[in-house]
Amino acid sequence: EKGGYEHFMLKEIYEQPLAIKDTYRGRLLVEEGIIKLSGVEDNMKRFLNADRIIIVACGTSWHAGLVAEYIFEDLARIPVEVEYASEFRYRNPVITEKDVVISISQSGETADTLAAIKLAKSKGAFVFGVCNVVGSSIARETDAGAYTHAGPEIGVASTKAFTTQITLLTMMALRLARAKGTISSSDYRRQLQELELIPEKVKEALKADKHIQSIAETYKDSRNMLYLGRGYNFPVALEGALKLKEISYIHAEGYPAAEMKHGPIALIDENMPVIVIATKKGHYEKVVSNIQEIKSRKGKIIGIVTQGDVSVRELADHVIEVPETLENLSPLLTTIPLQLLSYHIAVMLGKNVDQPRNLAKSVTVE
Ligand code: F6R
After folding, report:
1. What is the secondary structure of 140-167 as a DSSP string?
2. Is 136 in the pocket of ligand 1 (CB under 6 A)?
3. Residue 181 region, left (φ>0) first, then alpha (ψ -120 to 50), else beta?
4. Whose CA is nearest to atom 4 of ligand 1?
5. pLDDT, the chain, mean
6. 32 CA distance to ligand 1 centroid (A)?
7. Where residue 281 falls among pLDDT bands split at 50, 70, 90?
8. Confidence band (pLDDT; 50, 70, 90) for 366?
């Protein structure tokens, strides 16, 4: 059942090239320049008339929502708010009939997300579900939706659910951008072509596994770790830190790289490993200067970089390469080494990777 892998989590990490393909199969028609998502097509007016999109989710799905905020605003020019479902539902939020709510949930059973949907519906908002589990409560409760088709995710730590959610949300943003005319036809084509190449590039990123294992060996006894990223990769930093916390029980925090100087930089000394996402596109020079700030305080730097990178390599203690892609697609690649790093550290520490303490796969209590 684990297909020769030692844990479900590792199997699911390695399934990502196929899972992402399954998400876009039959929906992404690159030659024709078409994205086909019937849940979006059938409700195009609601999307185009929306004053804003509110995304509600929890945990890793909330991180996918944060990536989606950058994508929807950047490509489709629709204002987006991303909310923890548990906060949204209890704070008397302003919701109108002109709002579109997108709920994101792997299991489709998360109690807080389900309650947030019911609240939004009661105020007349249109609610669109992005779920993995077919026929789940959230899939049934929403007005329309699209499945990620990632296949069953058994490991409690979410991996392929995250990358397939981002794949689906990217397709939605591109479809809406095309309908709104906020993207040029050449950029649109380029996006489709690049998205289709992502599974191959994820495969390429997975090849760093052995190298990541040796980095895991070096840092497995750390008490804390910091994860930094900017722009599209800020939510990836949050997700990397969550993965480490939940399966290895090492304290970790994700931060926008530029926020360092407003507090967390005080934590840095020779015992603090800092994982910095520093891919070529997207604030590269700024991230390099953030890395210099860490280095001058003797922090240990693990850079997630684009293949062939020179500048970060000169400064960092270790680099892990991922293939080049469009900036907005980079989270699909930069997430991979962070998943592997936390997996290997947890295994080396003898933790129960697939069923970490205190956690459940579906959180059906609020
Ligand atoms: C993290 C993790 C949790 C879930 C969260 C939401 O690895 O598994 O944070 O992401 O409980 O679950 P779903 O997506 O099923 O609503």
Report:
1. HHSSEEEE-------SSS-SHHHHHHHH
2. no
3. left
4. 59
5. 96
6. 35
7. confident
8. confident
Distance 264 CA to ligand 1 centre (A): 26
Distance between CA 298 and CA 293 in Å, rounded? 9
DSSP 286: H
Diameter of the chain measured on Cα atoms: 56
**SS3 category, 348:** helix
pLDDT in tens, 69-102: 999 999 999 999 999 999 999 999 999 999 999 9
Atom from ligand 1 closest to the CA of residue 113: 16
43-61 pLDDT per residue, tens: 999 999 999 999 999 999 9
Q: Are 228 and 272 in contact (CB under 8 A)?
A: no
The b/e string for 257-296 (b: 16+ C-beta within 10 A; e otherwise) is beebeeeebeebeeebbbbbbbbbebbbeebbebbeebbe
Retrieve residue 181's tokens: 């005319």
Q: What SS3 state is found at 104?
A: strand
| DSSP state string for 304-321 | EEETT--HHHHH-SEEEE
Q: What is the mean pLDDT of residues 279-296?
A: 91
Q: Which of 301, 306, 298 is closest to 324 using CA atoms?
A: 306
CB distance 113 to ligand 1 below 6 Å: yes
* Three-class SS state of 29: strand
Q: Are 253 and 268 in contact (CB under 8 A)?
A: no
**107 Cβ inside 6 Å of ligand 1:** yes
- Ligand 1: which residue has its CA nearest to atom 11? 59
Q: CB–CB of 58/86 below 8 Å?
A: yes
**What integer pLDDT is reported at residue 233 of this predicted model?**
97
56 closest CA partner among 8, 20, 110: 110
Separation of 361 CA from ligand 1 center, angstroms? 7
**DSSP symbols for 35-96:** E--HHHHTTHHHHHH-SEEEEEE-HHHHHHHHHHHHHIIIII---EEEEEHHHHTTS-----
Q: Which atom of ligand 1 is nearest to the CA of 363?
A: 11
